[in-house]
């Protein structure tokens, strides 16, 4: 890099950090010089990699979130505007294709999205900007970051730290060479609680005078969330942040936790024989056993769970909720389980989830405390498991639970059958569309597999209740599944 550019870069750093403490300016200036990034205002990063859908893995113990491939990846960043355009060919990243966020295998889709991460935007959007070496250094200057020296496994780092908008520190680790090796913070997830979101930068290379990592990995919690093998980086080229047509603005951070907005008011439908369907959000079924209640599904978040709990109390006052049946561990279907544990209920789930739930229910929830985290003493999580079949009955009421064999949505998928009512309750295997839809040209494998399980088990099903209730509140009959599965 020329002396003229270096001087310009140092001037930019000084301008950005006029009010920052001298030690912060010195640390940032040194890092900018080492990376040749002092005068960088835009970056265009190209490569190949993948990204994860948080909370939707096929196996809850997987090392990565449900994975998608990112081909032809180009991220064009305007550091001054705190915005970027992301272009990629996103497709199936699992072998075989399985997990949530769509029925695999997922077809390749060309994406062109613009995200702005200015002050006042959702914090996870801002973190997508801050979790870049150059952006982190800018933010550290603006926030008057503290500086400390730290040795980790014999390696010395200069650590810059400032407080994020969610009241969790954001820290960047600068090595002896002056490169930002890691940026790390903590965010809230309503299932996992306080989780680390970090970006790790390795294999630094020279791209036309700019030093940049050729390998980037991000984690949200323990699982891997993002990976990029960088093939090219260009600095100070024009970046167009015009939002493309048809809603090409990125949503509130790909790693954003499930929303905690209030669910619509609950209503309940009498299914007969002491069973009720609770509507008004994700569906749940309340069963009025002789001395206690059973709830099928604790979905979405604490707000929705408390709504279901309140409806259960209204329907059968003075009876405790002894069990909550969990169809699978995906976050939109497990997000309310903590509220049921706070009620003293035991979770009934597939055995694959037992060690996973025992672990995550111990994790702290300090950034956004929920009811369970505020209890002292905190009740111990009780978990009952099943493999292929489990029956809950008091002699007058019966719930049969079956493992959905062959599910590619989740390894521990459970469906519930009410033999007296001839009702099947399932999640994600048959998410219905509009009424009276014609037979599809291409059958969704989820639908075919669910019907195969019903036929294999010889279940007498009249009605199917999808946890993702139909938008028109219609009753979904078995005939509708047969049409969707190509067997009308």
Write up what this structure looks like.
21% of the residues lie in helices and 35% in strands. The chain has an 11-stranded antiparallel sheet with strand order 4-3-2-1-11-10-9-8-7-6-5, covered by helices on one side. Strands 12-13-14-15-16-17-18 form a 7-stranded mixed sheet. A hairpin with a 5-residue loop joins β6 (155-163) and β7 (169-174). α1 packs antiparallel against α2 and α2 (22-35) runs antiparallel to α4 (133-142). The radius of gyration is 26 Å and the shape is elongated. The chain is of the alpha+beta class and 488 residues long. The protein has 11 helices and 24 strands. Mean pLDDT is 92; it is low at 1-20 and 249-258. The protein folds into 2 domains: 3-235, outer membrane lipoprotein receptor (LolB), chain A (Clam); 268-484, Ribonuclease Z/Hydroxyacylglutathione hydrolase-like (Metallo-beta-lactamase, Chain A), CATH 3.60.15.10.
For this structure, the CATH topology of the largest domain is: outer membrane lipoprotein receptor (LolB), chain A
Number of helices: 11
Number of domains: 2
**Which CATH class of the largest domain applies here?**
Mainly Beta
- Secondary-structure-based class equals alpha+beta
Largest sheet report: 11 strands, antiparallel
Strand content: 25-35%
In the sheet with the most strands, the strands line up as: 4-3-2-1-11-10-9-8-7-6-5
Ends: how far apart? 69 Å
Give the % helix. 10-25%
Q: Evaluate the radius of gyration.
A: 26 Å
Give the tally of β-strands: 24
Poorly predicted regions are 1-20, 249-258
- Indicate the mean pLDDT: 92
